[in-house]
Amino acid sequence: MTNPFGKAKEGRNKPDYTNKHKTSVPTLIDQVINEADIILEILDARFIEKTRNIEMENKVKDAGKVLIYIFNKSDLVDINKAKIEEDYGDLKPSLFFSSTNRKGSATLIRMIKIQVKKLKKDIVNIGVIGYPNTGKSSMINLLAGRAVSRTSSEAGFTKGIQKIKIFSGVYLIDTPGIIPIEEKTYGNRRLLAKHAKIGATTWYKAKDPDVIVFEIMKEYPGILEAYYNIKADGDVEVLIEKLGRRLSYLKKGNEVDEDRTSKHILRQWQEGKIRVR
Question: Tens of pLDDT along 30-71?
């Protein structure tokens, strides 16, 4: 893959890994915001409001830093983008982006170059923040033109902080995916369901997966039934029962393994196989 910013100097284009395992996540984020001149907040285009971190946004604005909103995974959205722009018109500057088909990459590069030029600094750091599994690492790899940030569909795959040179004098600072402090309410089923829906909690770690599938069916009526071609009339128990038997996910006594079937649905949901309209 070609580096869209041009070739960096030989010997200086390797990622600088800073091991800070003993530092708390909020402290890491504060350090990134303090060090960065520009912040990219990576949002899932399917769940823009759910993947915003208002706490971090306010810190960035209070610090007087440039904040750019990236609506990532736009290839997984079948809805009218004009409607999204209308609903989230206050999130500026922003753009639709897809690491999969490179959509928006040229626009993002232009936006970054414009902001870098305005700063008039020899060294510019760009912080990259967002919930787990919003696609930060894939976007960084695309901008860098090479695989420098490890990628996975599993939440929390990026560890610590990575500092990556993308062209002369400009660095990207990657961070682990962060869940807002106010959402770290252990045992809160509503928040647990939200984190599983947006991929912040990996599918196989989800508690009460059938409840999460129910929440998806309630928020996006007909999506799961259409994908699996199952008539369930919005009844999660019917959907899981029919799908479980189709997949032969059965326990002793010929009963459907509801947990396994529900996690199968969550996996396909998190991997983007079930598209939101």
Answer: 888 888 999 999 998 888 888 888 888 999 999 999 999 999
Q: Based on the fold, state whether residues 26 and 157 are members of the same structural domain.
A: yes
3-class secondary-structure state, position 109: helix
Identify whether the C-beta of residue 234 lies closer than 8 Å to the C-beta of residue 217. Answer: yes
Residue 32 lies in a domain: yes
The pLDDT mean for the chain works out to: 78
Helix, strand, or coil here: 92?
Answer: coil
Q: Is residue 142 part of a domain?
A: yes
259, burial (CB in 10 Å: exposed 0-12, middle 13-18, buried 19+): middle
Q: Are residues 197 and 94 in the same domain?
A: no
Q: Which of 131, 148, 97 is nearest to 29 (CA)?
A: 131
Question: What are the pLDDT digits (tens) for 88-141?
Answer: 778 888 888 988 888 888 899 899 999 999 999 999 999 988 888 788 878 888
At 27, is the secondary structure helix, strand, or coil? helix
In this structure, the answer to whether residues 159 and 203 fall within a common structural domain is: no
Q: d(Cα 268, Cα 196) in Å, to the nearest integer? A: 12
Claim to verify: residue 160 and residue 44 sit in the same structural domain? yes
Predicted model pTM: 0.69
Three-state SS at 1: coil
CA distance 186 to 170: 39
Which pLDDT tens digit goes with each residue over 9-38? 444 444 343 333 334 555 777 888 888 999
- Rounded to an integer, what distance in angstroms lies between the CA atom of residue 40 and that of residue 122? 20
Residues 192 and 177 both lie in one domain: no
**Using omega within 30 degrees of 0 as the cis cutoff, is the peptide bond preceding 93 cis?**
yes
Nearest CA among 29, 37, 117, 107 for reference residue 71: 107
Q: Which amino acid is at 127?
A: G
Contact, 58 vs 185, CB < 8 A?
A: no
